[in-house]
Amino acid sequence: MNKILITFDEAKKMAKSVMKRCNILGKISENKNIITRLYLSKEHKHVNIIVEKWMQKAGMKTWQDEVGNICGRYEGNTLNSSAILMASHLDTVKNAGKYDGILGVLSSIEIVHWFHKKNLRFNFAIEVIGFADEEGVRFGIPFLGSKGIIGEWIKDWLNIIDNKGISLKRAMEGFGLNPNFFNKASRAKDDFITYLELHIEQGPYLYLEKLPLAVVKGINGMYHLECKFIGESGHAGTVPMSCRKDVFFAFSEWLMFLRKNIQKEKYSKKIVSTIGKFNCFPNVTNVIPESIVFSLDLRSIDNIILDNFLEEILNYAKKISYFYKTTFIYKKKYHSFSVFFDEKLQEILLKTIKYFQKRTIEIYSGAGHDAISFAKRCPTGMIFIRCKKGISHNPNESVLDTDVALSLQVFIKFIININQNFL
Ligand code: GLV
Ligand code: MN
Ligand code: MN
C-alpha cells in the first residue's frame, strides 16, 4: 500500500471539484448577494442535504446527529473500528467568504472519495463531519457543533435566544431536531484515534512567505464578553453637560485606554482585541444615550497575559464609569485557554508537507477552530492553507486550486503512511 501515491494531476482535478463545490455552497445564503449561513437556519438544512449526498457518493454511510452536524463514515478493514476524524464547519459568519470551514469539509470528502475509488480500506475507519456551528454567530457561543460531539453541551444553552428572540430550543425544533436528545450527539472517547482539520490560514503569514501549507502548532486562548455601559437618557438640548450620565464619553475614554494599553511593551504583538458588535439605546439623534452594549473579543497564545490584560481593562471600565456617573457591567460568554497540538502528530504532518514543499513555517492560529474541542480528546493536528493576502471573514477570501491540490496530496499520503505506523 505504501507505493500507492496520488499524482499532482489527479490532485488538481480533485481540487477543481472541491472548489466547484465551495462555489455551490457559497450560493446557499440567507441574503442574495452575500454569504450568511447560520446555525439551524433553512440554509443550514439545505447545505446538510447537499453535503450528505456528496458524502454518500464518496462511499460513506451518513447521518445527521442530534445537534445538526452532518456526519459520514467510511469503514475500515474491519467494521466498527476507531476512526480518523477529518472535519471542519459549514456555518459562516455574516458576509462571509466561501472557504472558511467549508474547504476543510469538502476536501475531506474528496479524499475519502479517492480512497473509495481506489478501493482502499485501512486499519481504521475515516469519518468526516461538517460541523453545524463553529462561528457562534446566532447564539453567541462558538463550537456548538463540535461541543455536541465531545459531550460538552450544557442544557441551559437551550434557553439562549438569538437576536430575533428565538431560543436555541425552538430553533432546534424548527430544524427537526429534538432538543431533549442533544446528549445523543456525543461520541465515545475511543471512537476517534485522531482529529485532522484543514483550514485556510485566515492570516497573512503563508501568503507573505509565498508558501502553500504549514502545520499549525496551536491556537490562541480567547475571551468573548458582552459589555454594557448604563447611563441616563435625557434631552440633547436641555441637560447641561455637567449633569449628564452619557455612556458615550465613558465608552470612548475606556476604548482609548484599551488601545493605549494594548500598545504597551508587555502586550504589544501578544494580544488582539476586537469590538465587532455594538448597539446604542435608544439610538436617536436628540436623546442622550442611555446604554451601549457591545461585544469584546480578546485573544492571545499566552493565557496569563490575556488574563492580566482583561483584568486591567475591566478595572479601568469601572473607574471611568464612576467618573462619568455611569455603570459598567459585563458577562463572560465564552472562554477557551490556548491549545497546543500533539507534537508527534505535528512531526509526521510536517514531514509529509516537506515531502511536497521544501520549506515551511511554524504557525499559531489566531482564529478559533473545531480542533480546540478535540485537542483534549485525541491527538489533534491542523494544516493551514494559504489564502490570498490573509483575507478572511470577508467575501474576498480566495485560495489557489494548486494549493488545495497539494493539501489533498499531503493528507492522502499521511493517511496511507499512518495505516502502516498506527498512531
Ligand atoms: C472563528 O472563526 C473565530 O476564530 O472566531
Ligand atoms: Mn470563521
Ligand atoms: Mn473556520
Automatic annotation (TrEMBL):
Amino acids binding Zn(2+) 1:
H89, D100, H199
Keywords of the record, alphabetical order, are: Hydrolase, Manganese, Metal-binding, Zinc
> Would the keyword Nucleus turn up in this protein's UniProt record?
no
**What single Pfam family name could you report for this chain, choosing any that match?**
Peptidase_M20
Q: Which SUPFAM superfamilies match?
A: Bacterial exopeptidase dimerisation domain, Zn-dependent exopeptidases
Which InterPro entries did the record assign?
Amidase_Cbmase, Bact_exopeptidase_dim_dom, Peptidase_M20
Give the residues the record marks as binding Zn(2+) 2.
D100, E135, H393
Highest rank taxon of the organism = Bacteria
Q: How is the cofactor bound?
A: Binds 2 Zn(2+) ions per subunit.
Q: Which cofactor is essential here? A: Mn(2+); Zn(2+)
Q: Tell me, what is one Gene Ontology molecular-function annotation carried by this entry?
A: hydrolase activity, acting on carbon-nitrogen (but not peptide) bonds, in linear amidines
What the record says about family reads:
Belongs to the peptidase M20 family.
Assembly: Homodimer.
Q: What is this protein called?
A: N-carbamoyl-L-amino acid hydrolase
